[in-house]
Amino acid sequence: MSNPSIEFYVGINEELENVSLRRNKATGQRNVVMFFSRIKAIEKFNSFTGKTYGDLRLTDEEGQIIVTPSSMKFIFKGEEGDETQKIECGFPIDSDDNWERFMRFMTRYAQSNGMEYKDK
User: Fold this and answer.
1) Distance (Å, rounded) from C-alpha 98 to C-alpha 72?
2) 35, 51, 63, 79: which has the highest count of C-beta atoms within 10 A?
């Protein structure tokens, strides 16, 4: 059994820093925002030379979850404003079945990477 992985680009596992699970009280829409301190593929310019999926792949023992981000936000810092502070990748989850599958993935990913769930 392999460790759960998150990939924007083929063969390059990204390291999730944090994740926020949100639900719109008015509509019931569930949204996920994943936070990364860096995107490895971009740092190595693999985004220009490697093969991209064109989406986000979450892979674990059950298979792949394929999502298309609805938002990508790059936040910069440093004197020149050119150092990546964090990247936010957001996407909606449209059904209870998809939500439950995502939560199973996140549980496996968290256990494999020393993360824990905290309710705010």
Assistant:
1) 21
2) 35
For 48-77, b where at least 16 C-beta lie within 10 A, e where not — what string?
A: eeeeeeeebbbbbeeeebebebeeeeeeee
Domain count, the chain: 1
pLDDT tens digits, one per residue of 71-113: 988 888 878 877 778 889 999 999 999 999 999 999 999 999 9
The per-residue DSSP string of 27-38 comes to: T--EEEEEEES-
Question: Is 93 a member of any domain?
Answer: yes
The CATH number assigned to the domain holding 94 equals 2.40.30.220
pTM: 0.83
Confirm whether 119 is domain-assigned.
no
Q: Is 103 helix (H, G, I), strand (E, B) or coil?
A: helix
For 94, phi then psi, to 5°, come to -95, -15
Over residues 12-44, the pLDDT tens digits come to 899 999 999 999 899 889 999 999 998 886 766
Sign of CA dihedral 44, 50, 54, 60: negative
Range of the domain at 54: 5-112
